[in-house]
Amino acid sequence: MKLFKKIFHIFKNQQIVFWTFLAMLILPNVLMFFTESTSTIVRVASIVLPLGLYWLAFTLSSKPGKVFWWLFFFVFVDAFQIVLLYLYGESPIAVDMFLNLTTTNPTETTELLSNLLPAVLFVIVLYVGGMVVAVLSILNKEVLPLPFRKFQRKIAYGIAAVGVVLVGVSYGVDKKFKLEDDIFPINGCYNLALSIDRATKTFNYDKNVKDFTYHATCTHSDSIPEVYVLVIGETARADNLGIYGYSRNTTPLLAAIGSDVVAYFDAITMSNTTHKSVPLLLTAVGSEDDFDGIYNQKGIVTAFKEAGYSTAFYSCQRRNHSIIDFLGCEAEEVVYLKDNLSMMAQLPDEALVGQLKKRLAKHKSGKLFVLLHCYGSHFNYYDRYERKGAFYTPDEIPSASNKYRDNMVNAYDNSIRHTDILLAGVINALKDVHIASALCYVSDHGEDIFDDSRQRFLHSSPIPTYYQLRVPFIMWASQEFKTTYPEKWQSIVANQKTPISTNRVTFHTMLDLGGVATPSFKADAAVSNSAFKQLPRRYVNDHDEYRPMDDCGLKDLDAEQFKAHHLQFP
Predict the structure, then answer these.
(1) CA distance 456 to 280
(2) I need a labelling partner for 473 at 20 to 30 A (CA). Which of 255, 289, 532, 568 fits?
(3) pLDDT in tens, 332-352
């Protein structure tokens, strides 16, 4: 009680409140001076210009608390920015970060927030405390003296003017500088506007694609029964799979299958976030130059359906009202395995095998395309498998910090072993039906697990890393498929060591396997086709621009990893 009275007495002074609020609002900018990789002049400008504008705003009222509430949006953005700096160590609030708020289910949110407690508690204490002080400021009989406000306004104009000059200089000396990209919170506001635009397009997706058609036909004989399965993994990075040379044998079942499993050694994703990468995998947009095409075309399920295939979509993820849901729900049979489970209930991906077997049991003739969507290795890793069956221990993760990295890697590797169980189960189910069949497994993106001095964790960061980009891309085909389409299998094997962009090749490879002919098909983007052509790899950045791999923010540490693993860069 004494402490509260002391604090109350301090903040009765409106001038102290004035300076306190000014410091609160400029705090993220000061932090970003040390975290961002932009030029020094840009980082100075990113402090001076916002400082001048905030300073000016607080001279508009005799009660600083009123201004603090007027600027509530910027208070929220500041708090969000500080949490993201704690998580990723750099970069302004990205468009993908705002979109993740709308597409992340409550289970994922709970798992993530529980491991961001230090940052979350800090911003709650700082900014909620600021709101309380703002209310006290409004209720306080004391006001800022008019001479004080006039004098501070003159200073604010001067600081803002210097900020404008620094922005002009930044444009002159830094060719990459953009006000909407590099000055916080302007960039945060700009990215929020972009995210609203994209969310609106997603909301209207079903209307926009209502009349879309692939004009697809099937070039394979009707008399040949076929099954093709595309498995979309989650957060699996190739470095932690035994068949990719990892020191741990995390994929014993796939390894036992032998040469029938073709793992593409140099596979890179074009996006490090699920809501972007998966649509790139499931449409032709990954091989095009305009990401906005994602909002105007249907997906791979529709292409197969138009070609006469029966289609099914089974998911171990929860519905999140993203484009992924729309693309999956184009199938004739749609099953979200967690629909009838409680919000926090977990279900291992192996449950997808049982669902697939039920469908295969009903497949007596004709052609079938199945899309499986895993929960894979999404954090919290130890929730992705039965703990009593953990192969690597200890796997408890008291908190997401470097001191528990060994435990985190154990849990992550356990989740990879369960992906191995899933894929082996799918392969064995396809073997049992004794017809022409093939499987493609690809992960949407990888993951940072405190791998180097940057101490990065998770994925979806505004600037990617090597660990988020290198993913597994695995092919398998039945003996019946190899006998019927030997040239396709030969191409699959021949292209195994070719550097690929997974989001470019997946859609076209699956269409090629199934003999699906459409004007959208590109033979040079299908690894199963003799016309396949290697092209320079690109990354789709936060503003949906297709950028060369050496111009997407990767650091020297990332280039070193590409070199150490003998992967093509750029």
Answers:
(1) 25
(2) 289
(3) 999 999 998 887 788 899 999
Strand (E) or helix (H) holding 538: strand 538-540
Spatial distance between the Cα atoms of 498 and 527, rounded to a whole number of angstroms: 9
What is residue 108's predicted lDDT score, i.e. its pLDDT?
57
Higher pLDDT, 398 or 153: 153
CA 350 to chain centre: 23
In angstroms, rounded to a whole number, what is the distance separating the alpha carbons of residues 396 and 387?
9
Q: How far apart are CA 356 and CA 314, in angstroms?
A: 8
Are 525 and 532 spatial neighbours (Cβ–Cβ below 8 Å)? yes
Residue 533: partners with Cβ closer than 8 Å, 6 or more residues away? 524, 525
pTM for this prediction: 0.92
* Pairwise CA distance, residues 567 & 570, whole Å: 9
**Is the confidence at residue 140, as pLDDT, over 80?**
yes
Q: How far apart are CA 338 and CA 14, in angstroms?
A: 54
**Short-list 531, 477, 539, 491, CA closest to 226:** 477
**What letters, b where the CB count within 10 A reaches 16 and e where it falls short, cover 271-286?**
bbbbbbbbbbbbbbbb
Q: What are the tokens at 371?
A: 């899309």
Task: Report how far residue 555's alpha carbon sits from residue 558's, in angstroms, rounded to the nearest whole number.
Answer: 5
Q: How many CA atoms lie within 13 A of 63 on its CB side?
A: 14
